[in-house]
Amino acid sequence: MKTELTRRSMLGGLGAGLGHLLFQKQLKAASLIAETGKPGKLDLSLTAMTSGILRISIAPSVATPPSQELGVLESPHEVTLHTGDADGAVRWGRYSIRVEEEPLRIIVMDAEQKVRQEIQFDTDSTAVRFRLGARPVFGLGEGLIGYDRRGTKDGMHNGQDTPELRTAGSRVPIPWVISPEGWGVFVGEPMGTFDLTGETGVVRSPVATSTRNVYVVLGETPAEVLRGYAELTGYPHLPPLWSLGYMQSHRTLASRDEVLGIAKTFREKKLPCDALIYLGTGFCPSGWNTGHGSFTFNADVFPDPAEMFRQFHEEHFKVVLHVVPPYDLHGKITDTNAAAHAPGDAAAYWAEHMPVEEVGVDGWWPDEGDLLPPDARLERNEMYWEGQIQAHPERRPFALHRNGYAGLQRYGWLWSGDIDARWKTLAAQVTVGINIGLCGIPYWGTDTGGFIPTKELTPELYLRWFQFSAFCPLFRSHGVAWKMRLPWGWDMGTPGPLEGAGAIGSWPAPQDLHNAHVEQICRKYLELRYQLLPYLYSTADQAHGTGMPLMRALWLAYPQDPKAETIGDQYLWGDHFLVAPVTEQSATQRTVYLPVGTWWDFWKNERTVGGAIVMREVDIETIPLYLRAGSIVPMGPVRQYATDTDEEPITLRIYPGTDGRFSLYEDDGISFRYLQGEFMRIECIWEDGPRKLTLECAEGTRLFPGKKMTIRAMDKGTNQVVTLNDRVTVIQL
């Protein structure tokens, strides 16, 4: 069981994983070649980081521990070990390890002597090989085409300089692969080449090196492996509740009246929205500031920023601002030496943010960073976390990044970069989102509608993308021709400022810009998103505590289902929902694979038998949504913003058919006081046979006395209202 994170542990810097040494041996002089190209004395060390994480290190034979690994946190775990058994194996909990030389191989086996993983170091020291097994493999970060990574050869190059940018998005390489077989491998080679085209995986360093770290993560289930990866690189932060609401991005701005008018329109139309995001001047002719790198407000549109921010906050909007940090950024905001005042140092650079922080900004959107090396990317991610805490210790930070590395999940969110508005791009983004979740980064999303307009950007494509985004962690509309990204934007008669006309993208047909139906459908999914916030925030708490993503590959829940591991165009949304985005133009039906069991159609409230492919009819208003039998889904009232107070109680929807459970989590949604126990976690347990629901306050939780809930059994449609005054409440349905 993971110890509850403290704010300091979440801010923990990079460090060598401290574990328990299992085995150490000096290798033969001819075994490996050091940086000089000449044979040298090297030590092989096997270290148990936890009972499920093994570090394999090769380093020069000196009296220093293995080098610190980028992205890896210290490990405080106690592990029971013993070595030197008669069979020569090294014992590691429920596993055993055999070391062979010439070639150097480390073989990890379980109690049944089944090989779980095998790591081999080539004699020239430039390549590490690992066992791929017989099943698909996933991971490697963001920005690759395809679901299964088999057949991939990737140089781990960061940023938007990639041939697949317009479809797969910006490349955020993470040297981690995971298999449904119950293993994962993290290679300490952020600039290496991953080659998964053969029977074994191969990672080649760009230079000869005598120091290598490879981490093998094992578990009885894929969920255990993801938890192990979180132990290694850090658990996801718990975001502020508002960041799970809808965010509206703006580009070229005309005036103060326009800026305030859009915010006012959201509230007048009663279209839920939590955050207003403003691009900087530079990527558009008139943004919030005066240019790239500037923290001076553009007086033409923000003549009185403090007063405008006051009005935004009075209407319960958060404000997020776009920035382009310097490419030589380095260090930490806590630096106090003379270098801390030099250009490019994080302490000096963060100080430039402070006047805007004092005006009332609620979050940042640090763009670019493609040319930064991996350590600088992660330092920048960390700066926007620590800096905001330094400025406002009473609230959780928000930062939306385009670049990062393993460990980003501790600090912020990620979006997929400058993608095209095309159907094939929408389809590709589904698999991109699933794979980045399998790399430990749960808070991810896209530019809804695609960043660059093409001839394919029609009301239909925008709506299908909006529906998909409603079931992504980041629900945000952004792109060139930005007024079409407003929920009512397709009925304005204009796409907005034609920035980049003739040089970037295409513009919609005039007849498409008088479509009032788009707003109606956007409203439907906005309202559903806000109704599901209790479910979504509880799922974020689960990610914070276990490392499980919000968007989940089917095989995480069905690891023994060979069909599930081939499905990359649908996913689980938390524990209970199955989401099948519609990504084909003019679709009237959608093929959906339902794993074994009973499923409920969310829209029809009808049961369907799983273990088969079903053909679900769809219209422009519908994407297939299913719930597993036994699901317990908390739904709130329709709100205009995430923290909107409403006396209407949460409804727990029970979908009978088998036993089930759900952990409902609540706190104030903004501060770190949950770390001091100011939260409520209720374990909801459904017993299908006796039709009994038990609501039990989890250990450590503070009961909110008098809290009411409505309980609804979906097969009967009847409601019961209960009041939680005791630690355990039992309801018979």
TrEMBL record:
InterPro entries named in the record: DUF5110, Gal_mutarotase_sf_dom, GH, Glyco_hydro_31_C, Glyco_hydro_31_TIM, Glyco_hydro_b, Glycosyl_Hydrolase_31
Domain (Glycoside hydrolase family 31 TIM barrel) ranges: 236-538
GO molecular function, one term: hydrolase activity, hydrolyzing O-glycosyl compounds
Domain Glycosyl hydrolase family 31 C-terminal, first and last residues per copy: 547-633
UniProt keyword Hydrolase, yes or no: yes
Domain DUF5110 stretches: 649-711
GO biological process: carbohydrate metabolic process
Keywords, ordered alphabetically: Glycosidase, Hydrolase
CDD domains noted in UniProt: GH31_N
Alphabetized PANTHER family for the sequence: HYDROLASE, PUTATIVE (AFU_ORTHOLOGUE AFUA_1G03140)-RELATED, MALTASE-GLUCOAMYLASE
Family that this chain belongs to: Belongs to the glycosyl hydrolase 31 family.
Name of this protein: Glycoside hydrolase family 31 protein
